[in-house]
Amino acid sequence: MTTITLTIDPAFRVGPVRRRTFGAFVEHLGRCVYTGIHDPEHPSADADGFRGDVIDLTRELGVSTVRYPGGNFVSGYRWEDGVGPRDQRPRRLDLAWHSTEPNLVGVDEFMRWTKASGTEAMMAVNLGTRGVQEALDLLEYCNVKGGTALSDQRRANGAAEPYDIKLWCLGNEMDGPWQIGHKTAHEYGRLAAETARAMRMIQPDLELVACGSSGVPIPTFGQWEQTVLSETYEYVDMISAHAYYAEEDGDLGSFLASAVDMDHFIDSVTAVADGVRAHKKLAKRIHISFDEWNVWYQKRAESVPPSGDDWPVAPVLLEDKYNVADAVVVGNLLISLLRHTDRVHSASLAQLVNVIAPIMTEPGGRIWRQTTFHPFAQASRYATGEVLQVAIDAPTYETAKFGDAPLVDAVATRDPETGAVALFAVNRSTTETVTLEVDSRSIPGLRVLGATTLSNPDHTWVATADDDTAVLPRDNDSATLDGGRLTVQVPPVSWNVVRLGA
Ligand code: AHR
């Protein structure tokens, strides 16, 4: 059996664990909103029509921020359609997903949902078909106390207090030719800069995110960030990154190494941002909002929007069913995000319910957890305090997509207040159980509090409404700690969490 040595040391501190790393995303897309978070017919629905069971699982998942309302949807969205009396709200064509938007849920309902779910809103403005004025209008509606036309409209609509939304996305994926109102980097950079500058005239302490690239493979990757940041650097706090991964052509080895690409993405954007900083001779640093990331099988039929005269409300779209390998990759992507906590200040799993989601619902019926629910919930729960880089001495294997990849990847967290240490590790081997030998001697007095493993002899197992519990993170009894050396065996294609404490 291969033995891999890892070292955990408080000196390897990267930065704080950020709650915002555990954000998610709710888009008006498919069944994410309608029959997802919102389903008035459901027995658990509240007065707004929000499903209580979805709220419960959102809390269990440990979600911090929720990005809203898109996504591609936002680039054609008129936020005014979604406020005021419901029976007077217009139905609109949603060009992004070839659907009909009934506008039964809008800003006010969503903000009530964030309150019910204990989450923080990350609001996106439309910089596709709209511009500075409409962004200012939405900000006035949401954040101005009262005494102006739009803030008084909010009050009349039932929200006496301002929402005080801090996090704002300046558009969505404006680099993508698929985007409504797609722009060149220069066109977008100018618009984003002017929008940000004006928004800060209302509220200087906003946290603003400019659109970065929609993935490393997009031809403008790097150059886009360079141009956009040259225009916006002084006015924004973060630049976004989006990445989706999938097992293609049976190449499980590459798929399991997806986090190698995410590492590269983050490191590249960091380098470009720091290059612009040097050129501008500024002290301020730009951070990354990885506000769309997940496994997404884009080539599957359920990712193809309707066409022709068919403009349904809440069609089944992007309802990927995730297997055990997908969950291991999701866990590994979380490892990458945590490892970059010095530069990734916000992240959103895309998405939350039904649409490439950890939570699935039947309209009016059952709810269940996908395999990908578990690594997210565990990382959100057990990552506390500070992120520690883990020194890993592991053999590599060759991948077709991402070059040589280490067989094992890991990150650790340590809470200086409680002394709790958590090790998150994946075994990317498709065949071999490996032994992890973890040197933790620099943190004396630890013992094993618990160890779990998510894996299955058949890594293609998927959860369903009938059975979402046959494969769960299970206790891993092989974990022992002796003389500051932790030993644990981790099976092939597995996500593992070892918790240590005094
Ligand atoms: O999350 C699904 C879609 O992926 C979003 O609408 C878009 O921003 C991205 O391309």
Please sum up the structure shown.
By secondary structure, this protein is of the alpha/beta class. The chain has helices at 52-61, 107-117, 132-143, 149-156, 185-202, 223-232, 252-256, 258-280, 324-339, 373-382; strands spanning 3-7, 13-16, 23-25, 65-68, 92-94, 99-101, 120-125, 167-170, 207-210, 238-245, 287-295, 344-349, 359-361, 367-369, 386-388, 391-393, 396-399, 403-406, 408-414, 421-427, 434-439, 447-454, 474-475, 480-482, 485-490, 494-501.
Quote the distance from N terminus to C terminus: 30 Å
CATH class category label of the largest domain:
Alpha Beta
What is the 3D form? globular
Total beta strand runs: 26
CATH topology of the largest domain: the name is TIM Barrel
**Roughly how much helix do the residues carry, as a percent range?**
10-25%
Provide the gyration radius in Å. Answer: 22 Å
Largest sheet: 8 strands, parallel, barrel
The distinct ligands, each listed once, are: alpha-L-arabinofuranose
Provide the spatial order of strands within the biggest beta sheet.
Answer: 3-4-7-8-9-10-11-12
Q: Pick out the low-confidence regions.
A: none
Mean pLDDT: 97
- The DSSP helix count reads 10
- What kind of oligomer do you see? single chain
Structural class: alpha/beta
Number of spatially distinct domains: 2
CATH superfamily of the largest domain: Glycosidases
Beta-strand portion reads 25-35%
CATH architecture assignment of the largest domain: Alpha-Beta Barrel
